Amino acid sequence: MHTRAQAKWIRMSPLKVRRIMNVVRGKTVAEAYTTLTFLPHAAAREVKKVLHSAIHNLINHPVTPCTEEEAQQFRVSKIYADQGPTLRRIQPHARGRAFPIKKRITHITIELDDLQ
Questions:
Q1: Strand, helix or coil for residue 25
Q2: Torsion of CA 79, 82, 84, 90, to 10 degrees
Q3: Ramachandran angles phi, psi of 107, nearest 5°
Q4: pLDDT, tens digit, 9 for 90 and up, residues 24-37
Q5: 2-113: which CATH topology?
């Protein structure tokens, strides 16, 4: 059995989020949750929210619900951050020049799978 959770339109660069995801990928849910709790990065909080949502998707599954202890035994099988549309702004500079400011957006996806 597996489940999936997704968070879209996170105002953060995908590169910053992928750095956190590489730490968590392949770990059990309990290890990943503990790791994300103590990481000092802002992206860790966002990934932790999505992991929390995936855990509760398992617990509240309509066909085959599981307990919270069983959900802790699942592992993070797939975790990835896709880039959303980029907001573009213009920063004026000296002598009539202008430089772009790119505001990146991320879509985070986590899939949990049992250990078998």
A1: coil
A2: 110
A3: -115, 120
A4: 999 999 999 999 99
A5: Ribosomal Protein L22; Chain A (3.90.470)
Read out DSSP for 37-104?
A: HH--SHHHHHHHHHHHHHHHHHHT-SSS---HHHHTT-EEEEEEEEE-PPEEEEEE-GGG-EEEEEE-
Describe the crossing of helices 42-59 and 29-38 by its angle, rounded to 10 degrees. Answer: 150
pLDDT, one tens digit per residue, over 24-77 is: 999 999 999 999 999 999 999 999 999 999 999 999 998 889 999 999 999 999
Q: Where are the domains of the chain?
A: 2-113
- Rounded to whole angstroms, the Cα distance separating 76 from 19 reads 16
Q: What is the pTM of this model?
A: 0.91
By C-alpha distance, which of 33, 31, 29 is closest to 70? 29
